[in-house]
Amino acid sequence: MKSISPDDLVYFSEVPESSGLVIDLAYAREDNFLFGERIYRQDAVLTLHRFMADIVIRAGRIARERHGLSLIIHDGLRTVDAQARMLETRAVKANPHWVENEPRLLSPPGAGGHPRGMAVDVTLADLDGEVLDMGTVFDFLAEDPSPLTNPAHREYPQSVIAAINRGFLDSIMAEAAHQAGQPLFPLPQEWWDFRLPPEIYEGYAPLSDHDLPETLRLLADTQ
User: How confident is the model at residue 222 (pLDDT cuts 50, 70, 90)?
Assistant: First the structure.
């Protein structure tokens, strides 16, 4: 398994409005939908592996220039430490079946594209900042993640408007990945999650907070 070099990470500390990108790290806020408590430090910086960063930068440009929209990024790199912190939240302790039953609704620390910076959670908004209707809010968690019972699933029947908006998002991300020359895997059960395919990210070791520069670590207590 390969290690991810610090030189392969891109930090989005500031993005110009003209980029079409809006950084809104959900887990750096107390009012995030899923956990209802802050996971990251308040001044956390979005970090992505350069392969995914290239896709996202292109997607922001496509969203703005072709559709008059903004690409909102809610999460990228989620270190092993941050994944572990999520499992300690009040919400998870009140719903132990989220992690005890199969399929798990939350990944174990180290699993998936997020702890490698190779997954991104995104949605779209108009240029006034109004988030487009996608059928559910970001981070909607269904007790049963199967297609016919999970409104966040890509195969769940949607309203006409939500289906059109999801189509916009899918096409923007797909074209950006094509331009970047990278394969892209839309996670079936979460319309907002786009990642490199497992055969790519599973070849790399996950990152911890201590793999990042001290000022860019996600958790306040790993400084």
Answer: low
Q: What is the pLDDT of residues 6-21, one digit of tens each?
A: 999 999 998 998 999 9
CA-closest candidate to residue 48, choices 220, 183, 185, 216: 216
Q: Where are the beta strands (DSSP E) in 84-219?
A: 119-126, 185-186, 193-195
Q: Hey, what are 160's tokens?
A: 């006409």
What's the mean per-residue pLDDT of the chain? 95
| Cα(212)–Cα(49) distance, integer angstroms | 12
CA atoms within 13 A on the CB side of 182: 26
The Cβ-side half-sphere exposure at 60, using a 13 Å CA radius, reads 18
Q: Which CATH class is domain 6-222?
A: alpha beta
Give me the pLDDT at residue 122, please: 99
